[in-house]
Amino acid sequence: MNSILITYSLLACAIIAEVIGSTFLVKSEGFTKLWPSLAVLVLFSIAFYLLSQVVKVIPLGVTYAIWSGVGIVLTAIIGFLVFKQHLDVPAVVGMVLIIAGVIVINLFSKTTSH
Q1: Would you write out the chain's pLDDT as a tens digit for each of its 114 residues?
Q2: Do residues 66 and 103 touch, judged by C-beta distance below 8 A?
Q3: Please, where are the H alpha helices in the chain?
Q4: How far is CA 99 from CA 2, 32, 69, 94, 106, in A?
Q5: Is the four-CA dihedral 6, 49, 42, 28 of positive or negative sign?
Q6: Directed axis angle between helix 60-82 and helix 2-27, to 10°?
Q7: Under a CB-based contact definition with an 8 Å cutoff, are residues 25 and 61 in contact?
Q8: What is the DSSP letter of 83?
Q9: In Å, what is the CA distance from 2 to each residue of 7, 30, 114?
Q10: Coil, helix or strand at residue 42
């Protein structure tokens, strides 16, 4: 149980690093600004390192589904709140379906023990 908790904590940290890195990606203005560009590289490196640890315990497909699904939604929320990017109804519905998929995987999948 403790191992799976640590693994999911690493996955959460990977998601956070990727979302913050994606935020700096916008700020880098196409990698033309030094500090935001370096932040992207460092944060994405951290995210992928953490993912490499997670896939030792959780299968790649499940790991990637959770990482990308939660990352998509959090990145969209940051885009909305920070960059004033608006989402239309189909985008919101799609993200609700993504979250539903992540919940189904975590609650009902026998691929990994919870």
Answers
A1: 588 899 999 999 999 999 999 999 999 999 999 999 999 999 999 999 999 999 999 999 899 999 999 999 999 999 999 999 999 999 999 999 999 998 898 888 887 655
A2: no
A3: 2-27, 34-54, 60-82, 89-108
A4: 25, 34, 7, 9, 11
A5: negative
A6: 40
A7: no
A8: S
A9: 9, 41, 10
A10: helix
Residue with tokens 């004033």: 84
Q: How far apart are CA 39 and CA 96, in angstroms?
A: 29
Q: Cα(30)–Cα(67) distance, rounded to whole angstroms?
A: 24
Residue linked to tokens 């904590």: 9
| Amino acid identity at 98 | I
